[in-house]
Amino acid sequence: MNICITGALGHIGSGLIRNLNIPSLKKVHLVDNFFTQRYASLFNLPNKPKFIFHEMDILSEEMSDIIKDSDVVIHLAAITDAESSLQKKDLVETVNKKGLKHVVDLASQHNCPLIFPSTTSVYGSQSKLVDEKCNDLQPQSPYAESKIWAERYLNSLGQRGKLKYSIFRLGTIFGYSIGMRFHTAVNKFIFQGVTGREATVWKTAYNQKRPYCDLNDAIAAINYSIKNSVFDNEVYNIITVNSTVKGILDVVKKYVPHLQVKFVESKIMNQLSYEVDNAKSIRRGFSYRGDLNKSIRKTVKALQNINCEVTKINL
What we know:
Elements lengths: L1 E5 L4 H6 L10 E6 L17 E6 L7 H6 L3 E4 L13 H21 L4 E6 L22 H18 L5 E6 L1 E3 L12 H8 L4 E4 L6 E6 H13 L6 E5 L2 E4 H11 L5 E4 L14 H5 L8 H11 L13
Parallel strand pairs: 1-2, 1-4, 2-3, 4-5, 5-6, 6-10, 7-9, 8-12
Antiparallel strand pairs: 9-11
């Protein structure tokens, strides 16, 4: 089996390519345009399977030959910062819509199943626990809107029998990888803490619940989908825990006890509180072993010698 991973050097991709658990896997095409310059994600890759790196934009015509040589496409390439997407609408349009369409059309053309990571941000503010049947989607950013657009495009091809896929609505990803970023909650709070800064929290968000996904659970879901051919044109919520921001900060403070909180304004998410159900994915055979405490501890340990004293006795 050969696979293609777009956006392969990012937070999820850099962890995935070091933890592929697919016995028949022979070749992995890594596609990334170095937009975020995560060169380190290519360091010390496993000896097997065979990795082939393509410094390439997903809109390139050369993508066709790569996907033609693949049995599965994992389409991770995207603009993922929800808040900054308000100032990057044109870029979101290019990457998250035009780029997605190009990759998906090629997958359809070459009869190649596809895994697409959407986001639980499509749900927006909800008063009750929501699952995949929720039709009242309330995206709060161009990023979330682009993911809904992508889901609908995949569905349109699937209904015509032109594409097999799985859509994973991922909670906010947390957890260590060599290509990780620090623009989202959990990871952002950790980095702010170990560098001696205040944790910046959107006003009103402190006690609101939102869904989060351990990187290990996201990787496990991808591996499981490929190994078990879960390309049933369904949407699955992939989340580890629903937590308040306060709950996350309490865990970070176990390892960075001097962390202080500063409340700030944001154009989005000030009223965004919701909990997401992952029961459908569990019924389908997906499993969850992620742990917020262990993940935060691991990331703090990797950063423990930067600026701020941490409680090393607990690491």
